[in-house]
């Protein structure tokens, strides 16, 4: 099997039961599946399970993949996003990640701390979005898909995707602005 064989050709081989082709697809795209699952579901603990379930569906449904309708990655994004949204709807369990981080013994530069806090604020704001807005923001801004690709992955029109993205961005900006005002106000009270 050629290392540079197209994903779509590999899916065709997977539909015929080729385990090596399936393994190659997993090698190429498992990281992407985990990353998207974690960002959309908001849970590192669930991301591996979601990604594995997504690839199980690739294995069992490879015959239904139509390369004329979408690229393999678009199909995979669709599977992962749907599974992550479904997972998010289930009752939540407390994550070990919620315990926080152990502080390093050596002091970090202020810039690194500020950047980390800003990133955490954005991640928190994105995690608080409704599932479909969160998926739109993750696919477009964090995964770098075009509007057309992300809309296809979510199985919605480009106009509907654009609307979700606009609302998601506005909510993230508002949450970050409110946090900044709260943090800034707390600093002023000292």
From TrEMBL:
Query: Per the database record, which ranges form the RNA polymerase sigma-70 region domain?
Result: 25-90
Q: Which PROSITE patterns match?
A: SIGMA70_ECF
Domain called RNA polymerase sigma factor 70 region 4 type: residue spans:
120-171
Q: Which InterPro entries match?
A: RNA_pol_sigma-70-like, RNA_pol_sigma-70_dom, RNA_pol_sigma70_ECF_CS, RNA_pol_sigma70_r2, RNA_pol_sigma70_r4_t2, RNA_pol_sigma_r2, RNA_pol_sigma_r3/r4-like, WH-like_DNA-bd_sf
Key words, A-Z = DNA-binding, Sigma factor, Transcription, Transcription regulation
GO terms assigned for molecular function = DNA binding; sigma factor activity
One annotated GO biological process? DNA-templated transcription initiation
Any Pfam family hit = Sigma70_r4_2
What does the similarity note say? Belongs to the sigma-70 factor family. ECF subfamily.
Q: Which NCBIfam families match?
A: PRK05602.1, sigma70-ECF
The identity of this protein, by name, is RNA polymerase sigma factor
The top of its lineage is: Bacteria, Pseudomonadati, Pseudomonadota, Alphaproteobacteria, Hyphomicrobiales
């Amino acid at each position: 099997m050629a290392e540079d064989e197209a994903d779509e050709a590999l899916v065709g081989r997977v539909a015929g039961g080729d385990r090596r082709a399936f393994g190659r697809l997993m090698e190429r795209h498992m990281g992407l599946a985990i990353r998207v699952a974690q960002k959309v579901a908001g849970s590192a603990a669930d991301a591996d399970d979601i990604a594995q379930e997504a690839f199980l569906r690739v294995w069992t449904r490879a015959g239904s993949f139509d390369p004329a309708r979408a690229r393999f990655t678009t199909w995979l994004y669709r599977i992962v996003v749907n599974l992550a949204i479904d997972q998010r709807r289930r009752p939540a369990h407390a994550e070990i990640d919620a315990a926080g981080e152990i502080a390093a013994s050596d002091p970090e530069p202020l810039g690194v701390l500020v950047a980390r806090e800003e990133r955490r604020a954005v991640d928190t704001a994105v995690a608080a979005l409704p599932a479909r807005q969160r998926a739109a923001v993750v696919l477009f801004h964090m995964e770098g898909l075009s509007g057309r690709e992300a809309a296809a992955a979510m199985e919605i029109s480009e106009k509907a995707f654009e609307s979700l993205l606009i609302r998601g961005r506005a909510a993230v900006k508002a949450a970050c602005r409110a946090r900044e005002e709260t943090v800034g106000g707390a600093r002023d009270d000292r």
